[in-house]
Amino acid sequence: MAGLAITRKRKVAQFLSDQTPNGHDSTTRNGKATLNGKADWGEEQDYERLVRKGKKKSEKQGPQRLPIKTPEGRIVQLAADENDTQEPDSDDDDNILEDGESIDSEGDSDEEMREPEPVKPKKSERQRILEAKEELANIASSVNEEPEENYQMLRKLQELFDSESSTTIKKLILITQVSIFRDIIPGYRIRPLTAEELAIKVTSDIRKLRNFEQSLVSNYKTYVDTLGRLSRAVEGKLGPVAISCACTLLETVPHFNFRQELLKIVVERLSSRIIDDSFVKCRNTLEEFFRQDDSGTGSLEAVRMIVKMLKAKDYNVDESVLNTFLSLRLLTELNVKASYDAIDEPTQKMKKKDRIPLTKKEKKARKEKKLVDAQMKEADAVVVYEEREKNQSETLKTVFLTYFRILKEKKPALTGATLEGLAKFAHLINVEFFADILAALRELVEDAQKEVEEEEEDVDGNNNELTQRERNLRREALLCIVSAFSLLADQANEAKGLVNIDLSFFTTYLYSVLLLLSLSPTIELSSKSLHLADPSSSEPVEIPSSKVNKATEIEMLLRSLDVVFFKAPRGTGEISSTRVAAFTKRLSMAALQLPEKSCVTLLTSLQNLSKKHSRKVHPLFVSEDRVGDGTYDPYIDTPELSNALAGGAVFEHALLANHYSPKVREQSKMVLKSAASSR
């Protein structure tokens, strides 16, 4: 230790001896101070004068908080509070050069030292759907429990739908909304409040109810508008869901506001030629809507929309759309006829002496009560009979005008449906329209006859196409016959001035197609029948795909025979014995070619014919009573010219007595027995 002290003293003494008396260095080199001939001292002074780099921002902020670990496993450094941060040093001379220029710190160093923000992990689609289901279920349950308190949730649902990007979650929101509206919509129609009603002071309960009703109508309108926009979107994934929701609302709450908007969505979908699940859903909804409509106002609106759509599409729609008219309640409610035995007497007013005197206060109270009762009737949707009859009359008029227009323009795709509709509503048609309808039906039958004649002459044509076309024409002609006779069957009293109407044209055509119908291979088939195609045909006969009101050909034949011989109107005159005998003979011939079930039903109709016109058909079954000259011509298509009573005994029943089916044999014996025993 003593040696170290001595050495230190020597160095200090040597340093002092080298300096001059005025304090300057003894030797200089190039203007720099030297120590023992070296420039060590000057280099140290220059290093001391160099500019120090400023502290980083993170260092100037003062003390930091301790890092934490997130649930995802990331370590995050938290920033200190403003109160905990210290004031930066006031000595900023280190950041300034001698010439006064400041040095900016490098931007890259700040970005490198800055802590990266934690990135939130993305949720999977399945997790988002599960969370959306839970949230929608909570909203739906809260609204259904207390709708007057939580009606603000309806707006929240619409906002969620507008902000959501997932198609699946949007579908869930639409379904949730329709379920909520279906449960909370009241049983009456909500009208807007007038200025006088808004100016009146009401209690808190009434104000609360008004707020709920107005908010419900506003949100419901927004929802219906959204359904309409989605249903019209081309290639939209939400279109089928929107149409299904609209159908659900139309079925469950048809009395509520914005019914026309819902009907517009359904009718627009029916205007398409593409038949899919949405089309069938709309069609079934419309039919159910017609059946459940009590007042007739909704049915009238829907029928007018359908007719407007048919005109816009030039009637190029599926025939099942026109068949929805058959679900109207006109068939069961509008055919009420007046009684011929009694009349409805008007209500007599109470005599003045029987009236109870009332004070002014009591009269005012009674007047107010009547006003309240009238409002309650309107709110409770009480159907007035006069109003319903008026609506149904307007609906019937619109339907008939549509049918007449289709018949005049001869739209082949809708002719069959139109004739079925006329046959259904024939008893409701006004007598003034009979002449025009019968003329249109006769034109259709004449067209069918011309087509059959052309098919017989065209030997090079395709047999399958001819068979298909011939079958459709026969069906339309049978419908014409049923419609023509049904027009007058239930209107006998109103048709007294139409005694000169001759329907023999339709009867003659029915007689001419009996043999062709008996040879038809599809006489027992309809669109609902499950059958195999003909293996020997390259292009098999196709049964129409429509499943609405499609009867088989044998059913149409039996209906025609029923209206001609058993329900003939009074104005058509009595059926001649020659015509009845010709029909009996040809029906017996047709029974030989028919299948078992059709043969039994036709023989049953023949038995009823022989019972009703026993004297006219008796000579055919008993040879001793046969009168006439000449021979029977089975190939002529006019019943009066066939000469059936001359020599046309019904020997076909002798062949039917040996039929393989015991039911046919038994029914044939019943025909012979009833015809021979009756005089």
Characteristics:
679 residues, mainly alpha, two-stranded antiparallel sheet, 4 strands
Strand content: under 5%
Q: Indicate the mean pLDDT.
A: 75
Helix content: 55-70%
Q: What class do helices, strands and sheet pairing give? A: mainly alpha
Number of strands: 4
Alpha-carbon distance between the termini? Answer: 166 Å
Q: Domains counted in the coordinates: how many?
A: 5
Query: What kind of sheet is the major sheet?
Result: 2 strands, antiparallel
Give the helix tally.
Answer: 29
The gyration radius over C-alpha positions equals 49 Å
What's the multimeric state?
Answer: single chain
- Outline type: elongated
Weakly predicted, low-confidence segments: 20-33, 84-113, 336-346, 459-471, 539-549
In the sheet with the most strands, the strands line up as: 1-2
Q: Can you describe what's shown?
A:
With 679 residues, the chain is mostly helical. It has 5 domains: 1-48, no CATH class; 131-257, no CATH class; 270-334 and 381-428; 438-517 and 550-572, no CATH class; 574-679, no CATH class. Helices cover 58% and strands 1% of the residues. The protein has 29 helices and 4 strands. The strands form 2 sheets. It has a two-stranded antiparallel sheet. A hairpin with a 2-residue loop joins strand 1 and strand 2 (32-33). Helix 6 runs antiparallel to helix 7. The longest helix is centred in the first third of the chain and has 29 residues, at 204-232. The model is unreliable at 20-33, 84-113, 336-346, 459-471 and 539-549 (pLDDT under 50).
